[in-house]
Structures are given as structure tokens and as C-alpha cells.
């Protein structure tokens, strides 16, 4: 299930910036800020457990890339679909870095429910399928909702109804909330925020690559 990725002119401008095209200054790169502080319209996620940080690459690598993101944020969509594949081919797949995902919902209640859907996949299958499902969520960002969560899981031969229920009930809200608190403790204010080691870098191929190479 894949929807067309509708983009406004501003999103297209950001895409060019993320790819290092056009020479835009770092200050011109904006992200998603504010809102979605508690996922208050959900059931509260009572009884949910706390899951480990999803990791790709080499878990013992000396350099860690940590990314705080929101499945409902269009800037995170751009980062994941246009920037991350290059970082993956150059650094993650060759196991040169440890790559960590953190949830940081800021857009709306969908941010929390989509995160719970992805975490439901992680709980059932592990990190590898989590990242595959996460990519599918970004590819279908314009249609995020219960049916999308279920159908994407079904396409991965998982229990779509269980994933949909986890999203609707915000079953993994404790994990998502803990991730957001971790981000706030590290000074994260919006998404996507990328850390290479302890330093924040612009979410561009050039900036991330340069920081990794320096590290």
C-alpha cells in the first residue's frame, strides 16, 4: 500500500536542502515543532511496557547516530526517504555506525498512534522489521490511520488487527513518552533532530557524513 507523496513548494525546497542542493544555509532548515505533548485523545496506553531502542548497523560501533523523529512530520518523511538511504548505504549497512531511532511526537495525536503501531511491530519481530515498517509509514504518511497501520502490517505477514489495536489504544505510549523525555533531556525541540555522538547536526547527507567521518 503506497500513496503518492504530495509535497508543497516549501517541502520541495527542504528536500533540495536535505540533499545538499542549492547551497541553503543551515538556518534555513526548519522542522516540526510543538504540540502533541501527551497523546491525550488516546486511551493512555495503560499497562504497556517499555521497549528497547531500535538499532541498525553495528551495536558496538564507536560512533552513534541517534535520530529523534515523528511519523507525522513531513520533514521526517523527507529525511527518511531522501537522506537516510544514502547514510544507510555508506555507514549503516557496512556497520560503521550504530544507528538509533527515538520517537519524538510533536505534530498531533497521529504522531503517537503511528509510533505505537511501529512499536507493536518491533515487539513482535524486532528492530529489522521495525525499520521496514517505519519506512512504510513514511511512504504512506498522507493516509496514516487505523486501516493503514493494519494493512501495512498485513503486507509484512504480521497481525494487522493487533497492530491497529496497539495504535488505537496507544499501547506503547510508555515507550514513546520515555523517548520524548530522553529527547527533551538532550535539548531536542523539533523533528528531525540528528545527533552524531553528542553533537547535533543538520539532517542532510553532507552534514551527517562529515560528522561521522570526523568522529
Return residue spans where pLDDT drops below 50 for at least 5 consecutive residues: 2-29, 40-48
What is the gyration radius calculated from CA atoms? 16 Å
Which structural class best describes the helix and strand composition? Answer: alpha+beta
CATH architecture, by name, is 3-Layer(aba) Sandwich
Number of E-state strands: 7
- Helical content (DSSP H or I, runs of 4+): 40-55%
The helix/strand order is HEEEHEHHHHHEEEH
Note the total helix count.
8
CATH class: Alpha Beta
Overall spatial form: globular
For this structure, the CATH topology is Glutaredoxin
What percentage of the residues does DSSP assign to strands (E)?
A: 5-15%
Explain how this protein is built.
The chain is α+β, with helices and mostly antiparallel strands and 215 residues long. It has one domain (9-214): Glutaredoxin (3-Layer(aba) Sandwich). Helices cover 47% and strands 12% of the residues. Strands 2-4-3-6-7 form a 5-stranded mixed sheet, sandwiched between helices. It is globular and about 45 Å long. It starts with 8 loop residues before the first helix and ends with a helix. The model is unreliable at 2-29 and 40-48 (pLDDT under 50).
Amino acid at each position: 500500500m503506497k500513496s503518492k507523496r504530495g509535497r508543497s513548494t516549501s517541502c520541495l525546497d527542504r528536500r533540495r536542502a536535505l540533499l545538499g542542493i542549492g547551497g541553503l544555509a543551515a538556518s534555513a532548515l526548519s522542522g516540526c515543532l510543538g504540540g502533541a505533548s501527551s497523546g491525550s485523545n488516546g486511551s493512555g496506553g495503560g499497562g504497556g511496557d517499555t521497549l528497547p531502542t531500535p538499532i541498525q548497523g553495528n551495536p558496538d560501533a564507536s560512533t552513534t547516530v541517534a535520530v529523534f523523529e515523528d511519523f507525522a512530520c513531513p520533514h521526517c518523511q523527507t529525511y527518511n526517504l531522501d537522506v537516510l538511504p544514502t547514510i544507510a548505504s555508506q555507514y549503516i549497512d557496512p556497520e560503521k555506525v550504530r544507528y538509533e531511532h527515538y520517537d519524538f511526537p510533536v505534530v498531533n495525536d497521529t504522531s503517537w498512534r503511528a509510533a505505537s503501531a511501529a512499536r507493536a511491530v518491533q515487539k513482535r519481530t524486532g528492530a529489522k522489521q521495525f525499520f521496514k515498517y517505519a519506512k512504510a509509514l513514511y511512504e504512506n504518511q498522507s493516509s496514516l490511520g487505523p486501516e493503514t497501520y493494519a494493512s501495512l502490517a498485513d503486507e509484512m505477514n504480521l497481525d494487522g488487527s493487533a497492530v491497529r489495536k496497539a495504535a488505537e489504544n496507544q499501547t506503547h505510549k510508555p515507550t514513546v513518552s520515555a523517548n520524548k523525555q530522553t529527547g527533551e533531556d538532550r535539548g531536542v525541540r523539533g523533528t528531525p533532530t540528528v545527533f552524531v555522538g553528542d553533537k547535533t547536526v543538520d539532517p542532510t547527507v553532507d552534514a551527517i557524513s562529515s560528522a561521522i567521518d570526523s568522529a
